[in-house]
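Cross-posted from the bioinformatics board.
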Amino acid sequence: EVQLVESGGGLVQPGGSLRLSCAASGFTFRTNWMHWVRQAPGKGLVWVSSINSDGSSTNYADSVKGRFTISRDNTKNTLYLQMNSLRAEDTAIYYCAKVLVAAACDYWGQGTLVTVSS
Amino acid sequence: QSALTQPASVSGSPGQSITISCTGTSNDIGDYDYVSWYQQPPGKAPKLMIYEVSNRPSGVPDRFSGSKSGNTASLTISGLQPEDEADYYCSSYRSNNNVVFGGGTKLTVL
């Protein structure tokens, strides 16, 4: 059974940092692209970042470019999102998702809530 | 990075058919057959319903179908059921390995 379990969310002050993790199991993690997608309270889904199977290629939404860094450890079956210089508008549930093909994600975690507030 | 355009809400009665549109540009929907649709019940994670415009993952009922014409994709749900009530999001691959989502459509089953 495919499982994606996010962790690392919490309350952080503006300008602060957080590192999210996503533990994957039930599939061959090292062969799959992965995404981070976020959803602000009461709002829609927004793509944040993606990474290819070996971590050599990464992509970011303009809104997080230069502040967030996606990475992965295929020996630990874990995806990461390092978030720096956090802003109030980064407040959201952050989901990790397994890519089936191109932009389609066939498995999602339960999400971890990040709240940026003083 | 502008989002894809979806109607805010649609509604239908049980047994009816509804269609949700998703309008993009020539840089996403118009240029790539990588349109996906997700169903998200309140408080839950999204579920993939359609990928590559019209393909259904295993386990998704054939009442759900997808199509595309030009810069607009559509999700059709036939034989509407109460459990179909949820938020629906389209997404598309966009040039330079980016992904874009629609703003979401709330489906109400009357």
